[in-house]
Amino acid sequence: MTHRPSAPVLSLPGLSALAAVVLLAGCATGTGPQAESLAPTALDAWQDQVRVLPAPVDIRLAPHDTGLSAPQAAALEEFVGQWLKAEGREIQVRAPETGPEARGANRVAWDARDRLLSLGVPPSAIRMQAYDGSDQPRAPVVISFSRYVVETPTCGNWRNLSHSSDNRVYDNFGCAIAANMAAQIASPEDLLNPRDMTAADAQQRGVMFEKYRQGKATGSERDEKATGAVSQVVN
Fold first, then answer.
1. Helix, strand, or coil here: 91?
2. Angle, nearest 10°, between helix axes 70-85 and 102-118?
3. In CATH, what number is assigned to the domain containing residue 121?
4. Nearest Cα to 170, choosing from 162, 178, 181, 179?
5. Number of domains, the chain
6. Which of 13, 137, 167, 177 has the fewest Cβ atoms within 10 Å of its own Cβ atom?
7. Residues 148-157: pLDDT tens digits?
8. Quick check: helix, strand or coil at residue 209?
9. Residue (of 139, 130, 62) closest to 100 by Cα position
10. What CA–CA distance (Å, rounded) separates 145 from 98?
11. Which one, of 56, 54, 73, lies nearest residue 64 by Cα?
């Protein structure tokens, strides 16, 4: 009758050695607190090169004792169009409280506020402020809002793709992804702060679906006038 060999029995020192190996293996798997902080990857390196820069838009209105002029009212309409496209928040109306034209500037400032309200700007989005204009002969009324632009990295410095003897990623690995994603952001301010959630616009959604079914473009038309800041004084 053939006897099956019995399993080896570990002695106490053998059990201790096995327990030590298991503990070391557990440390090697990285289950401790240090495993939660992973090292940055090549894709993460390009996130620091996407810069969000402030680019405020302002319009300057010359003071008039008679109040807002027709050209100034038209300029404010274009200004509100830029504010809507940029999804701006607060609009500041700053008028000089000192100087020879302070009275006319104050009249223009309040007329400008009324004009902004008539163009659909809510009262909570308008802030009236004063500044010292004694050092300017005709200190203007300055109307502005904060706007942001995104600056993306420049890609294209690729080395020979067939050369990979160093087993490292290429110099521009992830650059195009970071640049394209940053360029597609409608409002660069979203990269700095999250916006408040608003209710869904069912009517606008229906319009977009109907355009899609008809094969029409669903994007907004480009406005060349809204690409730069306005800084000239409007009379």
1. strand
2. 50
3. 3.30.1330.60
4. 162
5. 1
6. 167
7. 888 888 887 6
8. helix
9. 139
10. 23
11. 73
Which residue from 116, 114, 91, 99 is spatially nearest to 62, judged by alpha carbons?
A: 99
**Assigned domain for 51 exists:** no
Q: Give domain status of residue 30, yes or no.
A: no
Confidence class for position 116, pLDDT limits 50, 70, 90: very high
Tell me the C-alpha to C-alpha distance, in Å, between residue 109 and each of 45, 68, 104, 148: 47, 8, 9, 25
Distance CA 74, CA 134 (A): 28
Q: Which two tokens stand for residue 116?
A: 């902004």
Q: pTM score > 0.70 for this model?
A: no
Sequence-separated (6 or more) residues with CB below 8 Å from residue 220: 85
Give residue 21's identity as a one-letter amino acid code. Answer: V
Q: Please, are residues 80 and 120 in contact by the beta-carbon 8 Å criterion?
A: yes
pLDDT at position 204 is 73
Residue 117: which domain range? 58-148
| 72 vs 101: CA distance, rounded Å | 17
**133 within domain boundaries:** yes
What pLDDT, in 10s, does the model give residues 35-58?
Answer: 445 556 666 667 777 888 888 889
Lowest mean pLDDT: which of 46-50, 101-105, 138-142? 46-50
